[in-house]
Design brief:
210 residues; six-stranded antiparallel beta sheet; three-stranded antiparallel beta sheet; metal-binding; Met_Sox_Rdtase_MsrB_dom; oxidoreductase; EC 1.8.4.12
């Protein structure tokens, strides 16, 4: 059995078990994929079967202004889909996000807490089906830090770098090392995890130097 086929079958089993675990939310976390070998390679690439982005885990870094709510409070604050994806590490269906094709100038903020995360000038079309960015804004309180945290993710039989909101630990997506210059990174973000604030005058906030 090839390595690619092994991972494809592993995905099928993991997705099925995860869907069963979360049936009480009546929400599908992933699209229903029927993969043949020619499709599997593209699917696994977009989902991140290319190792981590080489970024260190920063979840232990102290940050001022951390937001901590109980699980019940998050459920009350968020829609069902927002809660599943942001607080339970779900994934919205590819090509379904309202912000995927958004080309307006402005700022993308965390759905959960409103922290500013991405400038529209960082956004690019990755062809993955999820909003993608090549850079991230700085933490508004500690400019030496990015507005997000990195966490090593070994779920689904892969090693990836998970992206979390630096202020409320919301799951946002993952970051990979196949993005455009100048960073070479691709922040693959669930659109439901973001809120967009348009800026009629444009926005020129500084990028992080990762």
């Amino acid at each position: 059995m090839s390595e690619m086929l092994r991972h494809t079958l592993m995905f099928a089993g993991v997705f099925t078990r995860r869907a069963i675990q979360l049936t009480k939310y009546k929400h599908y976390l992933y699209p229903k994929y029927f993969l043949i070998p020619s499709q599997a390679q593209s699917f696994l690439k977009n989902m991140g079967n290319n190792g981590s982005a080489g970024l260190s885990d920063t979840t232990g870094t102290a940050r001022p202004g951390k937001i901590q709510l109980s699980d019940e409070e998050w459920q009350a604050k968020l829609t069902r889909q927002e809660y599943i994806v942001c607080r339970k590490q779900g994934t919205e269906t590819a090509w379904s996000g309202e912000l995927l094709e958004n080309k307006a100038k402005g700022i993308y903020s965390c759905t959960c807490c409103g922290t500013e995360l991405f400038n529209s000038s960082f956004k690019f079309d990755s062809g993955s089906g999820w909003p993608s960015f090549f850079d991230v804004l700085k933490d508004k309180d500690v400019t030496e830090l990015p507005a997000i945290d990195f966490k090593t993710d070994t779920s689904h039989g892969m090693v990836r770098t998970e992206v979390l909101c630096g202020k409320c630990d919301a799951h946002l997506g993952h970051v990979f090392d196949d993005g455009p210059q100048p960073t070479g990174l691709r922040y693959c973000i669930n659109g439901v995890c973001l809120k967009f604030k348009p800026d009629a005058k444009g926005s020129d906030k500084k990028k992080t130097d990762l």
